[in-house]
Specification:
Shape of chain A: globular
Largest sheet of chain A: 2 strands, antiparallel
Chains: A mainly alpha (290), B alpha/beta (521), C mainly alpha (342)
CATH class of chain A: Mainly Alpha
Number of strands of chain A: 2
Structural class of chain C: mainly alpha
Number of domains of chain A: 1
Oligomer: heterotrimer
Order of helices and strands of chain A: HHHHEEHHHHHHHH
Strand content of chain A: under 5%
Structural class of chain A: mainly alpha
Chain lengths: 290, 521, 342
């Protein structure tokens, strides 16, 4: 039956979009983990803040989306610098994590206050609304556009990391912070940059991904868990490709699984995690070095 | 003769391309006292780690008694009766001294008495309730010994038991080791030769990862090859003429020629620099490491175009001195470090870098995920907006270090130790330094590479860069230095520009361990 | 209640004890003399709560007992140097074990507790080899993932868990088959279980095993060089912590006669993690006393004062202030001594 293959194709498109969304969030999380060695429990809340900004500015035009994105990046810059300052005097992983928990809690509380604890639907900009018909099946344009943008972000990240001076400096700072400092790279500046860019990736993903995975209570925890799984499966090192593959696997399993076999989705994710960790015996240990 | 306890047969070890331990064999009888000596990079610690099981050798065979243990990890070997200490005292700082010792005693019977006895054995009876983290460095080392003794191992591995201790503490450690029961065999690695000659009945000499000689303490003292590779400094008349025939005497074949050559070349630079403030001026530098005073009131200066070599035993504080100048280690207050007259803020490595200090750290520490080209690009980044003098282009550096030219696309792991060292120097030079700090650059390098390296250092100084060189390899140091300073017991014991004078050699011998006469006790 | 500090474990080794300095010795003496009356007061107050306060406060206190068990579970791992966010997953295992038992007619409280403890221990044994490959921030990362996966499974495994709607259970019964329905009765049952668990934990923390955990937390290479097996010893801590959380799960069912994924949500995990972390941040080392004090503070601030909806905000502010108290105090002290010297 033709409609089955159509469903598969449309669902696959959704899974792709979902995976790329997770990729962008996970890249930010990994950046903060790699440079600061901090488990940022507010990362999901950053995404939530992004979706909420998208909701606030959404007026059905691309301008609204652009405004939301600008506001999100500004908020990420302020928030990132603030978080870096807050984390500076604390030494232990636990204390640092609990402070990020507090920040995330404030964002989640503000959201629940304003939304009244219900899910919000973010309308797509008119230009990107509707479906693109291909071979007799309709594909949501927004998903296609989102996939294009996220793929662009992935390519840009790869280019920045491997072709630009900033990327070289970042990798040096992750490999050996003190020696990088003797080359004149300020450790403080790199930390602030990492946490700001990392947060900006989560907020930006929230703004653009709001029509895919919109503002709702609990979405912060979901996004945090899923992006964490991506980081763990992606393994050690600054390997964008491994992170991308992990994100696509998690996205597909979670999204397609939810459509095809709703009861099994979280199990299949669980099984994927276990399978990868068993196959890659050193998996977790290498993720440590991330 | 006692039964053989430990058999090490043809065991080797390497990191990537670099072989740090060539196949070596060792047989230790139960109850014996054995020392392993050799210059830095000789493979002593590697050998100890291989025996303890912290490193699993790719080749060779290790047996404890009759039992093969080659494939066992350190925990399993510990359960078979191997105990060890570490270079930095490994005690649990959050626990009290008594709790630390308690952990070593498996059986419940008489545990409390055994704890008290172990602490009293090392003289810590009064500190049973003190958290280990609050003990001074020397006492933490004693506590570690108490912990290891309390476990009653058949084989005891002591890694640098005298490092960081003052003379009276070293005497104390020597007494404690001497009082160990005859049932335990001991293998010691240390740089304090009087202590080892006093304690050990048999000694193995390693150099550059090679086994040189094994014998009794007296045999080692007299053996000419041993004298050549380790015990004597690089006076031309003591270099054996048949050097080329010997099996790679570690890092030991540099003649004094390039240094004189360079001195004539840079004589003008030296005289011109006299009017200027010294490139580096350090005043009353105090620093501690893990609570131990490592540097006490150090004052030194280095002029443009000059090479100053810092000599001293392992643990004498050479690395700490360089790291403190580079801003990686925080000195005590009142320390003043000035570069070309400008005072540096303490513990600000980026600040030091911007003021023209470049560090070639011990162990190279290249960035694992960067290619060599990326290393060079990163280092060049800042020079553009910096001083117009002393500027190196990538081409200049590649002319100086031609070995790197066709390795630019490689990652550090794909290069030999010598090439990595060249890359680390290139990275430092490209920041456009006024002052180059070199920390043990010859460590783990083959002799011919050491020659190349000393020539390179000489040429770098010839361009007007001041060089401060921390070096264990005396020959390499003496071949390049305009001034040598010896660190001993946290101070500069002496400093001279008379590099090759007989008086200097006599004093060097005294500080760096040729003299085997003085007993530790 | 629980006045055990991890720091006072293994007093045996400290018998011949010379105080490092007089003031700290005096302070410790005051603490030793003062803590028994204080503990007795806390226990008596807790037992008499139904007579002193209304059913709302008593209900709140019952739910606080579950959080206290989760916090103890988290703190037990912190003593072993392992920062965990995922103890709610074991709470879930325990809770759904009790649900399954209740659904098949086994409503006896102690039986449910024992079964929950057993299943969560098994779950811990199965996951330990993977989780214990990590330490520090990576362990934290992996346990956050475990929390999330546990929650997702609770939401989706509708056959057992009833999905987001949760499952109702009949009230638990005690030995004589008498169902436990009154609020004070449930409360007394809960604090009795908590007291037993706390006493067992106190004994455990004074044992040699706890000393070994602290050794691993402080210097793992030293412990390995002495022949200890990190995975085995830390695995024991992981299992013990899971048992505490599993008991908390069975108690959740006994207190609410209902369980849903919300009982093991991110917010619950956050509260438990924060209770342990804030307790450790206050005392400088992970102590059970600290975790209990922080649990009470969190419940009072979040659920009592914040019952109008501002609770999560108060909780967040607690997280954002308490970790700075000690650094600020140290900073002030050095500033003061510096000034006095100058």
């Amino acid at each position: 039956m033709g409609s089955t293959s159509a469903t598969v194709a449309v669902t696959g498109l959704g899974g792709l979009a979902y995976g790329l969304l997770l990729f962008v969030v996970a890249a930010g999380l990994k950046l903060i983990l790699g440079v600061m060695k901090v488990m940022n429990l507010a990362h999901g809340a950053s995404y939530l803040a992004g979706t909420w900004l998208a909701y606030l500015f959404a007026d059905g035009t691309l301008t609204g989306l652009a405004l939301a994105l600008a506001a999100g990046l500004a908020a990420a810059t302020v928030g990132g610098a603030g978080l870096a300052a807050l984390l500076r005097p604390l030494a232990g992983h636990t204390e640092q994590a609990v402070v990020t928990l507090g920040l995330g809690g404030i964002i989640a509380w503000l959201f629940s206050r304003i939304s009244g604890g219900s899910s919000l639907t973010v309308p797509r900009p008119g230009l990107l609304d509707g479906h693109l018909s291909f071979a007799g099946h309709g594909y949501p344009i927004y998903h296609l556009a989102f996939i294009a943008v996220a793929a662009l972000i992935a390519v840009a990240m790869h280019q920045v990391l491997h072709r630009s001076m900033a990327g070289i400096a970042l990798r040096a700072a992750i490999d050996d912070p003190p020696i990088a400092a003797t080359l004149g790279l300020s450790a403080t500046r790199i930390r602030i940059a990492a946490i700001t860019v990392g947060t900006a990736l989560a907020v930006g993903a929230g703004v653009l991904g709001a029509p895919v995975l919109g503002p709702a209570p609990g979405v912060d925890a979901t996004v945090l868990t899923l992006s964490l799984i991506v980081v763990i499966l992606g393994g050690a090192g600054t390997n964008i490709r491994a992170l991308l593959i992990a994100a696509l696997v998690v996205g597909m399993v979670n999204y397609v699984g939810a459509v095809v076999a709703p009861g099994l989705a979280s199990f299949s994710l669980f099984l994927v995690v276990i399978a990868v960790l068993v196959v890659r015996r050193q998996g977790l240990r290498t993720a440590v070095a991330a | 003769m006692n039964a053989q306890l430990l058999h090490v047969d043809g065991v080797s070890y390497g990191y990537g391309a670099a072989i740090v331990l060539h196949p070596v064999s060792l047989h230790i009888a139960a109850g014996s006292r054995h020392a392993v000596i050799g210059p830095n990079g000789a493979g002593k610690s590697t050998l100890l780690n291989v025996i303890a099981g912290n490193l699993i050798p790719p080749a060779g065979d290790i047996r404890l008694g009759q039992r093969p243990v080659t494939r066992l990890r350190e925990g399993a070997r510990a359960r078979l009766g191997i105990g060890r200490t570490f270079q930095h005292p490994a005690v649990v700082e959050q626990l009290t001294a008594a709790e630390n010792v308690t952990l070593a005693i498996r059986h419940r019977r008489m545990r409390r008495q055994k704890v008290r006895a172990a602490l009293e054995q090392v003289g810590l009876g009064d500190y049973a309730g003190t958290p280990a983290g609050q003990l001074p460095y020397g006492q933490r080392r004693l506590l570690e010994l108490a912990v290891v003794f309390a476990a009653q191992p058949q084989l005891l591995l002591l890694d640098e038991p005298s490092a960081g201790l003052d003379p009276s503490e070293i005497t104390h450690v020597g007494t404690i080791i001497r009082q160990l029961p005859d049932t335990a065999a001991v293998i010691m690695v240390d740089h304090h030769l009087p202590l080892l000659f006093d304690l050990a009945t048999t000694i193995t000499v390693l150099a550059a990862g090679q086994h040189v000689f094994s014998g009794t303490a007296d045999e080692v003292r007299e053996h000419p090859v041993v004298q050549a590779v380790y015990l004597s400094p690089a006076t031309p008349d003591t270099i054996p003429t048949n050097q080329a025939d010997q099996q790679e005497p570690g890092g030991a074949a540099t003649a004094g020629k390039p240094s004189r050559l360079r001195r004539t070349l840079t004589a003008t630079a030296d005289t011109a620099a006299v009017q200027e403030p010294a490139v580096l001026q350090v005043d009353s530098l105090h620093a501690a490491y893990h609570g131990a005073t490592v540097l006490d009131d150090i004052t030194l200066s280095v002029d443009a175009g000059n090479v100053q070599a810092i000599l001293g035993r392992n643990g004498a504080g050479k690395s700490t001195l360089l790291n403190t100048i580079a801003g990686l280690h925080r000195p005590h207050r009142h320390t003043r470090i000035r570069v070309a007259g400008v005072e540096l803020r303490p513990a600000q490595p980026a600040d030091a870098g911007r003021h023209g200090i470049a560090l070639v750290p011990q162990g190279r520490r290249l960035f694992a995920s960067l290619t060599i080209r990326e290393h060079l690009a990163l280092a060049t980044r800042h020079t553009r907006r910096q001083r117009q003098d002393a500027r190196w282009s990538i081409d200049d550096v590649l002319d100086l270090l031609p070995a790197l030219r066709d390795k630019l696309r490689r990652y550090p792991a794909q290069m030999s130790g010598g090439e990595q060292q060249m890359a680390a120097i290139a990275r430092a030079l490209l920041t456009g330094p006024r002052l180059l700090l070199l920390d043990e650059p010859t460590e783990g390098l083959a002799p011919q590479v050491v020659d190349q390296l000393t020539a390179t250092i000489t040429r770098i100084a010839g361009t007007g860069v001041a060089v401060l060189l921390a070096e264990q390899n005396q020959r390499a140091a003496l071949a390049t230095a305009d001034r040598i300073s010896v660190l001993d017991a946290a101070r500069i014991a002496f400093s001279t520009t008379d590099i090759n004078g007989p008086a200097t050699h006599a004093r060097l011998a005294g500080y760096l361990g040729v003299s085997t006469a003085g007993a530790a006790a | 209640m629980t006045t055990t500090t991890a720091a006072t474990a293994s007093d045996a080794a400290r018998e011949d004890h010379t105080p490092a300095s007089a003031p700290s010795g005096r302070r410790r003496l005051a603490w030793r003399v003062g803590r028994w009356p204080a503990a007795t007061g806390v226990v008596l107050g807790a037992a008499a709560l139904p007579a002193l306060a209304g059913p709302y406060v008593v209900g709140l206190a019952s739910s606080a007992v579950v959080l206290a068990l989760l916090a103890m579970s988290t703190q037990l791992l912190a003593v072993a140097g392992l920062p965990s966010f995922g103890q709610t997953a074991f709470l879930g295992v325990g809770a759904y074990t009790a649900v399954v038992l209740a659904a098949s007619g086994i409503t006896d409280g102690p039986v449910q507790l024992a079964a929950s403890a057993a299943t969560s221990a098994v779950a811990a044994v199965v996951t330990a080899p993977f989780v214990l490959r990590t330490r520090g921030v990576s362990f934290l990362m992996v346990t956050v993932m475990i929390q999330g996966l546990g929650y997702a499974i609770a939401v989706h495994w509708t056959g057992v868990t009833g999905g987001s709607d949760g499952r109702h259970t009949p009230p638990v019964t005690l030995g004589n088959g008498h169902p436990l329905t009154s609020t004070p009765g449930v409360y007394w049952y809960a604090i009795t279980v908590l007291a037993v668990a706390a006493a067992a934990t106190a004994v455990l923390l004074r044992s040699r095993l706890a000393l070994i955990w602290r050794g691993h937390a402080g210097h793992e290479p030293r412990m390995t060089a002495l022949g200890y097996r990190p995975t085995v010893n830390l695995g024991a801590a992981y299992v013990a912590a899971a048992v505490l959380a599993g008991i908390g799960g069975a108690l959740t069912v006994a207190i609410n006669t209902f369980v849903s994924p919300a009982d093991l949500s991110f917010d619950v995990a956050a509260a438990a993690f924060a209770a342990a972390a804030l307790g450790a941040a206050l005392f400088g080392i992970p102590t059970m006393t600290g975790a209990m004090a922080a649990t009470v503070a969190i419940v009072v601030v979040r659920d009592y004062f914040g019952s109008n909806g501002t609770g999560p905000l108060y909780f967040a502010l607690l997280c954002l202030t308490v970790p700075y108290l000690r650094p600020a105090a140290t900073g002030l002290r050095t500033w003061y001594t510096r000034r006095r010297q100058a």
